[in-house]
Amino acid sequence: MILIKLGGSIITDKTKPLTANLAAVRKIALQLRRLEDPYMIVHGGGSFGHYWSVRYDMHTKPDRYSPKGISVVKNSMVDLNRLVLQTLFRSKVLPYCLPPTDFVSGNSPIASKVKEIPKIAHTGLVPVSYGDVMWFGKNRFYILSGDRIMGMLTRILRPRLAIFVTNVDGVYSDIKTKKIIREIGRESPTIAEVRMDVTGGMSRKIKEATEMSKCGTDVIFVNGRFPQRIAAAANGKEFEGTIFRG
Questions:
Q1: CA-to-CA distance for 13 and 31, rounded, in angstroms?
Q2: Which H or E element spans position 146?
């Protein structure tokens, strides 16, 4: 199967708190209908969960965060997920919601639960999960990013392909000139410093993608503003973007 991460920068407007970009989701959904393989979607928080996690100073490290903040972040991700699910369904994609609590305990994936996901995908449904605030134990919570979920799933499922849909054309060797690295092999290149966000931003995605590729999975970065690139990459056709060779 194929794993697809829809970045928060694509499915929301990060400059406007609590603003979903449903037009982008609809355009992506039209391309997803062209995929030849079963697939799963994981989406980020963007101007929903990310916005509130910054406001309440919540991070990926387990800690005793504000109970109000935990509730607000949790609810905002449920709200965003509902909008994504509705938009996919109206675009004739059949989503099957899989909150990360369905297959993650503490900060570890439940292998037996994860291995059921491809079976769901093969029915014609599309499993959909998302980054979330998670219970860690001993009154501690943490932010589980969609990027990390992608890594967890890849290490257990070993999909043939994982696609990160971002708001840039790929991985830049130089962020000023925006020169794209077309292919990354076993050794990661030197990546120009990029602005970080609460879940690690582009640097985190690159690190996760590098580890995922070591599992034998090809990992691709494409620009979600050109959703046809998703279908092209998934179906083995020429595309604009960066590939981490598995």
A1: 21
A2: helix 146-157
Residue 188's pLDDT is what? 52
Distance of alpha carbon 107 from alpha carbon 99, whole angstroms: 14
> Around Cβ 17, how many Cβ atoms within 10 Å?
15
92-104 confidence digits (pLDDT tens): 999 999 999 999 9
Cα gap 212→150, rounded to integer Å: 8
Tell me the CA distances in angstroms from 145 to 22, 36, 119, 130, one per residue in order. 21, 27, 24, 8
pTM of the model: 0.92
Distances in whole angstroms, Cα of residue 5 to Cα of each of 86, 121, 148, 199, 246:
18, 15, 10, 14, 17
Report how far residue 56's alpha carbon sits from residue 150's, in angstroms, rounded to the nearest whole number. 25
What DSSP string runs through 14-66? TTSTT-B-HHHHHHHHHHHTT-SS-EEEEE--HHHHHHHHHHTT--SS-B---
Virtual torsion, Cα 217, 119, 33, 149, nearest 10 deg: -50
Gap between the Cα atoms of 150 and 162, Å rounded: 8
